[in-house]
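The passage that follows is intended for readers who have already worked through the single-chain material. We present the inputs for a multi-component assembly, then the predicted structure in tokenized form, and finally a short commentary. You are encouraged to pause after the input and sketch how you expect the pieces to fit together before reading on.
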Amino acid sequence: MTILRASLATLLTAVSLAHAQPADPLPSWNEGHAKARIVAFVRAVSEQGGKDFVPPAERIAVFDNDGTLWSEQPAYFQLLFALDRVKALAPKHPEWKEKQPFKAALEGDMKALAASGEKGLLTLVMATHAGTTPGEFRTIVREWLVTARHPRFKRPYTELVYQPMLELLGYLRANGFKTFIVSGGGIEFLRAWSEEAYGIPPEQVVGSSIKTKYVVKNGVPALVRQPAVNFIDDKEGKPVGILQHIGRRPIAAFGNSDGDFQMLEWVTAGPGPRFGLILHHDDAQREYAYDRKSHIGRLARGLDEGPRRGWTIVSMKKDWTQVYPKR
Amino acid sequence: MTILRASLATLLTAVSLAHAQPADPLPSWNEGHAKARIVAFVRAVSEQGGKDFVPPAERIAVFDNDGTLWSEQPAYFQLLFALDRVKALAPKHPEWKEKQPFKAALEGDMKALAASGEKGLLTLVMATHAGTTPGEFRTIVREWLVTARHPRFKRPYTELVYQPMLELLGYLRANGFKTFIVSGGGIEFLRAWSEEAYGIPPEQVVGSSIKTKYVVKNGVPALVRQPAVNFIDDKEGKPVGILQHIGRRPIAAFGNSDGDFQMLEWVTAGPGPRFGLILHHDDAQREYAYDRKSHIGRLARGLDEGPRRGWTIVSMKKDWTQVYPKR
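Having made your guess, compare it with the prediction:
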């Protein structure tokens, strides 16, 4: 009886301690400057009656995807997807053997492809996916994600999302934030898996897009993807895409490359409390190390100007205890 | 003492009855076919375990605005706004006196203007608002809404929203729906007042738009509205706009004109439970009566094909006990 009572007391103490000290919402972030600034910002804007309080409706946070929420090396994963599609569709397109960027795609010439940039990627996507509906396209993407493996890590691409960023997304949402993806990548490519991977629904995804056309065939209406660029959601296109989709200036922006510069610039120039963060890839051992000279995810201006603009520069190597989710 | 006890018993009975019979969520809708179908649909999709249950994330409802959520006669209210802007800016543009659609605007020639349609309206908006930021533009719209009065009803335009539709928006949201506006009108015009009037935040507004450009002047970044059409969110553009912004097919669509036909067609052609509704303006006394021959909000195909497509046709005259909110 005495033992039982003691156990109960221990249990109650444990429960009460758990209440007094809630679990760390960011366990994969080392204690340090970056984590402290994130927590201070979130507390400041969500503290009712505080001088920096922001109403929940205005707590909008925008995240770049490639290199910010998941890896982007040795090439954008959507580019690797497009390459596989080019190979799958090549028998129907003999002319691709001599035509760029298809030639590079079929030959696996990654340098030529990387140099073609977001526009080159979109050219491949347009050519390989024109004629599909968004639903069909998402199915193709999901099927690819099940079978494809990253060349270095030998894991599915959706396992190469960053554990610390997943925690950050959850932490922001737990504090009343609405989280959006604002990516240079294709909007329908992202929507195929963003809800499952990040908890971000299709209506909170902003991205580059090709045109779609409404057609009615035998009485059945459908939207069909067209081989023409609609919008490039990169660099100065990011604030434009944010306005178009979200319609108000977010209070927090998270990126990793100079393609995110204008987004961070616009977001952090607004009135009231603002937060800008750049993830610096300096961890060749656990992920990749690249910045000023990289074809993919080039980061120079952000490193030069970010600190004096008050942006938080995160070192993957020093600030993260873990990069990818544990298997 | 006995009296007190009896009173208490009465009070408790009243409270318990109130719980047993919750207040009608659609008090401005007459009991009848339309209301019964709305309620049956909402119950079916939100009944956990029911055969027509739809997860909350997929409970997306889209609403046309002009003629569906607020009046659109004697002309689209945004057109009336644009006319006032043309007059205000005319001294700086002497060439407008001879140039359409500005000439018609300055002369108050409503027929010529109505005939110029959505594109004519956008031409006026482009010319009168190029150079402003979205924030500045919304301020101009809000200031106009405070002073402008409807020519017939002598009330501010934001008081000419439909009370039964406000109740419907609230009823859907109380049952887990996310409500979006999908309008041929200008997206920034709508965002200036949609949250206050309808409880629909900027990120849930889809509309026509002009291009915006990101510019940095003296270190201050801004988005500036350009005199060029970006997107026309009308007719076959509505499903395209829905895909772009929302990224999934809604399960319910509400409109009033043939400009909404493709939206209703696409929404109601999807699998599972679907709801399409057309508001028929047949109430010349309390509002307006118009359909097949109207320049504004023309409705012919919807009346002809709607019923056999399973769409609910609402008679403003018979189905609504009240049109506008009471003062």
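Commentary: Residues 110-129 of chain B form the longest helix (20 residues). Chain B touches chain A through 36 residues (CB under 8 Å). How closely did your sketch match?
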